[in-house]
Amino acid sequence: MQLSSFAISIAIANIALVSADASNYWKAFTSQIDPKNITVPSIPATTSLNPTTECTYYNPDESLIVINATEWPSIWDVATSNNMDTSPEFLALYDSLDWANAPNISVRKLTSDGGLDFTGYDSSADPDCWWSASVCVHPKLADVSADIINCPEPETWGLTYDDGPNCSHNAFYDYLQEKKLTASMFYIGSNVLDWPYGAMRGVLDGHHIASHTWSHHYTTTLTNKEVLAEFYYTQKAIKLATGLTPRYWRPPYGDIDDRVRWIATQLGLTAVIWNLDTDDWAAGVTTTIEAVKQTYDDYVEMGTNGTFATSGNIVLTHEINNNTMDLAIDYLPKILSAYKQVIDVATCYNISYPYFEDIEWTNVLNASTAAAAASSVASSSVAASGSSSASAAAGTVTAAGAQINQSATSGASQLLPSALFTLVLAAVALL
User: Fold this and answer.
1) What sequence ranges are listed for the domain NodB homology (predicted)?
2) Active site residue 162
3) CA 57 from chain center: how many Å?
């Protein structure tokens, strides 16, 4: 019996070692969720509009989601916690990267009050394209994905929300659904594991799901292993809860440099930043709600005064708490009135494949024939390489209901190579 268990363990370890490499790491992830056919379980947490009821913890239905705490970092702790940096699946991925090619950029430090320490860094020369120091979004290194910072379409509001899935977001998501709005939702891995049905709803409602790291730390202050783990376990969590693995992510606080970009690029991840920041998270915390409303008012006015006559924006907003979601509901009618398009990032860039799975995003720009052809070429490039920097196409935008289609011939949902599956069967036969 001990020999049989050992053989099975070796077989499973081999699966992880083969599957978790820099290009195919996502294929080792498992999920019982079909993103094309999601039904969110009807329980008080998913149907109530009372925040206390919504935020009552639940154990997910094991026919949908099984969470084994030994396979995950500690919630809200750096993703190497709970010995995840020594797990076979993580070490297989870590060892598969050519760290000799990683940029020699120091790990940043924090000040005593928890902010970033810029001491000694030349922000004028900005050798590391450190956004926090210089708002740099064009990497100084070759073969590193450039950041997305705005929607290229004129008079367009790029709709994005960070820090979800929030347990009390039912009314907010209901409102977005009522208005037929889809947003880019940057989900925190810890939140996905805590509130997986919330992530399922994000996909069900047609939102563009992206990563926001596991624990929301300043990524430039983390070691290479910690950065890799923050990406890896967030990807794994989103896949578990939604059946999808994102190609896009947003650094917490916008904190990114070329070392972090390099690691993200190895995983096929492209950063999405912003060019307008509402500071909505600070309402009632470090600033007044009135000050945040004034910021919103200023951004609404930009939709009609010509500020975005030649290109659009991407706006940083949050589903972090009821204040931020209430502000969104209050201002979205004004935003819709002021801007020609209010759309998610995948749509404004005509990204056909925002996930690693062979699932097509069909909420795309309704452009001219020439622009649509250009978009098709760019989207094919994204699907093949994971790079998004060339995926924008010009044209007139018509926002439509987001859908996801999967190619009938897709092999992306195959989790295990057949030879490895045979190895598992052979091990089981020893029982």
Assistant:
1) 155-348
2) yes
3) 23
| Confidence at residue 408, expressed as pLDDT on a 0 to 100 scale | 34
Q: Which amino acid is at 40?
A: V
* CA 233/CA 252 separation, integer angstroms: 16
Residue 147 bears catalytic tag: no
**Token pair belonging to 29:** 């992830």
Mark whether 431 and 396 lie in a shared domain. no
CA angle, residues 94, 220, 83, in degrees to nearest 5: 40
Locate 391 and state its tokens: 């995926």
Category of 395 on φ-ψ map: left (φ > 0), alpha (ψ -120 to 50) or beta: left
Q: Which of 209, 210, 223 is nearest to 249 (CA)?
A: 210
Among 147, 162, 257, 280, the active-site one is: 162
What is residue 364's predicted lDDT score, i.e. its pLDDT?
60
Q: Which of 194, 208, 318, 344 is catalytic?
A: 318
Residue 429's pLDDT is 40
pLDDT the model gives residue 188: 98
Q: Phi first, then psi: what are they for 224, rounded to 5°?
A: -55, -45
Helix (H, G, I), strand (E, B) or coil at 384: helix
d(CA 191, CA 181): 22
Whole-prediction pTM value?
0.83
Q: Could you tell me the CATH number of the domain that includes residue 285? A: 3.20.20.370
Shared domain for 320 and 354, answered yes or no, is yes
Domain that includes residue 184, residue range: 131-402
Structure tokens at 170: 């039912």
- For residue 382, what is the enclosing H or E element? helix 369-385
Contacts of 140 (CB under 8 A, 6+ apart): 126, 127, 128, 129, 258
Please report whether residue 77 resides in a domain: no
**Consecutive 10-residue averages of pLDDT for the chain (431 residues):** 35 36 87 97 98 98 97 98 97 96 97 97 98 98 95 97 98 97 98 98 98 98 98 98 98 98 98 98 96 98 98 98 97 98 96 95 54 37 38 31 40 33 37 41
In the block, tokens 């049905």 appear at 197
Please tell me the predicted confidence (pLDDT) of residue 365: 57
Structural domain contains residue 151: yes
Are 32 and 63 contacting, i.e. CB atoms less than 8 angstroms apart?
A: yes
The pLDDT value recorded for residue 362 is: 82
Which tokens belong to 201? Answer: 């709803």
Alpha carbon of residue 188 to chain centroid: 8
**How many H helices and E strands in the chain?**
15, 10
Q: Write out the two tokens for 51.
A: 């925040």
- Which one, of 189, 192, 229, 241, lies nearest residue 212 by Cα? 189
